[in-house]
């Protein structure tokens, strides 16, 4: 039988039930979030859950780190139901199989992470023979089978949620901490589920690195098509941070995949109160342009652009645009942009706009500007790039997009989706945003979008988790203090993580990490190495600065 491929087959997920909620297939894309309160603080968790539901959260996820929280979760669910809300509750389980089995009796969905559910990331072993590798798989199956039996009997759904940075040593030994490793880790669990005739499954591939995240989800879809699987997909960018940066990063990653036709439910992860995540998720759904019916009609991919790895389109250089230069920012005369067309009309093709046919493209040494309005599909621009690549047209290309008429909030989300959809695939040597109504700085917005995509670094990069019931310090306050002290360190990557469950792994390629280590305590990391342990929270920012100085990365603010 010929294998199916993402290049020529649309992906249509199956429909599953989570409580009374239908997910996948032609159903609406569902929005969800996660509580940040201590699960044992029942009153606070119920109140926050209801705020989330009122804001539009269609599923509510709550952490259950130990057996102690199981009864608290049961009481939380009872109180939410008593108040008239039927919203499905998701139990977030990491290390303990027994916890997953107990909550599966009463919640509508259980989320497990293959990297640490039963195949601990803490293993010292780094090399595995085939026999050892398969023996570990058998152990996983033995631990997972009781949960599957309960879920089948109770109608409970399972999300197999793989996170970049929290893969097991066994998986990393064979595939590395890579998108492929993320996919194979999840599919091992899927195959165990299928061997037990259990199919009420959702899959996710999360990362704070947008390229890793997008490539992993695309690869997952391709592997599912090869294996004739069709499980619904949950989309999210982990540790996106807060404010405009967090919104841009989430929109660029999630929106890119939605435009690809991938995704059945989404969560925006912000280091803010969870009810603030919902409007952002709703805005992403409002501003991406591919309808569910269009997703079903054809594949979004073309072999001319490899969807599984980053390859910048090859172009020659003109005035620092193209070639090996980072993407440039275009703006009006006198702005802070890199390039002003008013002073450089002699090197622009056709006064900023080209009607698209390959035959009409000038054979000259000028910059080509692809000019479009926000109401035109961004896929049209990607199709033009595909044609350029096939024709080996190597002139630098500027993406010009006019968003006049959109509100500031919609403009930020929409431009992040559009430019992320191109930049994550290495398309575009310059970006040119226009919006006569925008109250902010267009150059600043452009820089943030390029940084979110990882294509141009102009500020400190922050990786910050949204917090959950495992966090035992005020991560929002801590993140604000860390940003205030380090925002001048351009190019440095600093992680602020809530706990040690996945924090040290999922801060991935951060240069320094600030990780919760218990009530009022913080561990400090240089890359993934624990350097300072159990620092009192009130001293942790100062100690972080000292660590950065010791590492030779500190500069005094100008």
Inertia-based shape: globular
CATH architecture of the largest domain: Alpha-Beta Barrel
Mean pLDDT: 90
Strand content: 15-25%
Distance between the termini: 64 Å
CATH class of the largest domain: Alpha Beta
- The total count of helices amounts to 17
CATH superfamily of the largest domain: Dihydropteroate synthase-like
- Rg, rounded, reads 24 Å
List the SSEs and their pairings.
Layout: E1 16-18, E2 21-23, E3 30-34, H1 42-55, E4 59-63, H2 68-82, E5 89-93, H3 97-103, E6 109-112, H4 114-117, H5 130-154, E7 157-163, H6 169-175, H7 179-195, E8 201-206, H8 210-226, E9 234-237, H9 243-260, E10 265-268, H10 277-287, H11 292-297, E11 328-329, E12 368-373, H12 378-390, E13 397-402, H13 408-423, E14 430-434, H14 442-452, E15 461-464, H15 475-486, E16 493-497, H16 503-506, E17 512-516, E18 521-526, E19 529-536, H17 537-550
Parallel strand pairs: 3-4, 3-10, 4-5, 5-6, 6-7, 7-8, 9-10, 11-14, 12-13, 13-14, 15-16, 16-17
Antiparallel strand pairs: 1-2, 17-18, 18-19
Helix pairs in contact: 1-2, 3-5, 5-7, 6-7, 7-8, 8-9, 9-10, 9-13, 10-13, 13-14, 15-17
């Amino acid at each position: 039988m010929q294998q199916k491929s993402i290049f020529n087959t649309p992906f249509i997920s199956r429909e599953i039930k989570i409580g009374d909620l239908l997910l996948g297939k032609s159903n609406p894309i569902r929005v969800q979030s996660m509580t940040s309160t201590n699960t044992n603080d029942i009153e606070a968790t119920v109140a926050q859950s209801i705020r989330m539901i009122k804001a539009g959260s269609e599923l509510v996820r709550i952490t259950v780190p130990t057996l102690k929280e199981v009864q608290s979760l049961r009481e939380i669910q009872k109180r939410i139901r008593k108040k008239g809300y039927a919203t499905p509750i998701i139990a977030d389980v990491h290390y303990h199989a027994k916890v997953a089995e107990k909550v599966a009796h009463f919640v509508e969905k259980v989320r497990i992470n293959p990297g640490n559910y039963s195949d601990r990331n803490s293993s010292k072993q780094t090399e595995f023979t085939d026999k050892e590798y398969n023996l570990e798989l058998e152990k996983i199956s033995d631990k997972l089978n009781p949960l599957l039996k309960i879920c089948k009997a109770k109608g409970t759904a399972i999300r197999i949620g793989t996170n970049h940075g929290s893969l097991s040593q066994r998986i990393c030994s064979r595939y590395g901490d890579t998108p492929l490793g993320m996919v194979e880790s999840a599919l091992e669990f899927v195959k165990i589920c299928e061997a037990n005739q259990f199919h009420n499954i959702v899959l996710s591939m999360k990362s704070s690195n947008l390229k890793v995240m997008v490539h992993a989800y695309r690869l997952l879809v391709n592997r599912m098509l090869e294996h004739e699987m069709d499980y619904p997909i949950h989309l999210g960018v982990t540790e996106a941070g807060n404010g405009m940066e967090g919104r841009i990063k989430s929109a660029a990653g999630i929106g890119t995949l939605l435009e690809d036709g991938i995704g059945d439910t989404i969560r925006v992860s912000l280091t803010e109160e969870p009810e603030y995540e919902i409007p952002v998720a709703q805005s992403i759904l409002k501003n991406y342009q591919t309808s569910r019916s269009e997703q079903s009609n054809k594949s979004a991919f073309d072999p001319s652009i490899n969807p599984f790895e980053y390859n910048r389109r090859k172009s020659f250089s003109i005035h620092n645009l193209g070639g090996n230069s980072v993407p440039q920012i275009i703006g009006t005369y006198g702005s802070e942009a890199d390039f002003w067309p008013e002073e450089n009309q002699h090197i622009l093709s056709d006064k900023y706009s080209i009607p698209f046919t390959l035959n009409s493209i000038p054979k000259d040494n000028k910059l080509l500007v692809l000019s479009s309005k926000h109401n035109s599909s961004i896929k049209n621009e990607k199709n033009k790039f595909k044609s350029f690549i096939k024709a080996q047209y190597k002139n630098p290309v500027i993406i010009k997009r006019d968003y006049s008429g959109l509100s500031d909030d919609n403009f930020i989300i929409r431009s992040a989706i559009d430019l992320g959809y191109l930049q994550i695939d290495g398309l575009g040597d310059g970006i040119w945003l226009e919006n006569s109504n925008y109250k902010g700085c267009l150059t600043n917005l452009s820089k943030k979008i390029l940084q979110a995509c990882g294509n141009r670094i102009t500020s400190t990069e922050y990786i910050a988790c949204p917090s959950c019931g495992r966090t035992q310090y005020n991560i929002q306050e801590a993140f604000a203090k860390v940003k205030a002290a380090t925002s001048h360190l351009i190019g440095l990557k600093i992680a602020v993580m809530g706990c040690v469950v996945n924090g040290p792994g999922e801060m991935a390629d951060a240069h320094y990490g600030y990780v919760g280590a218990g009530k009022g305590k913080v561990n400090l990391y240089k890359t993934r190495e624990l350097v300072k342990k159990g620092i009192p929270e009130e001293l942790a920012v100062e100690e972080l600065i000292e660590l950065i100085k010791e590492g030779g990365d500190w500069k005094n603010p100008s």
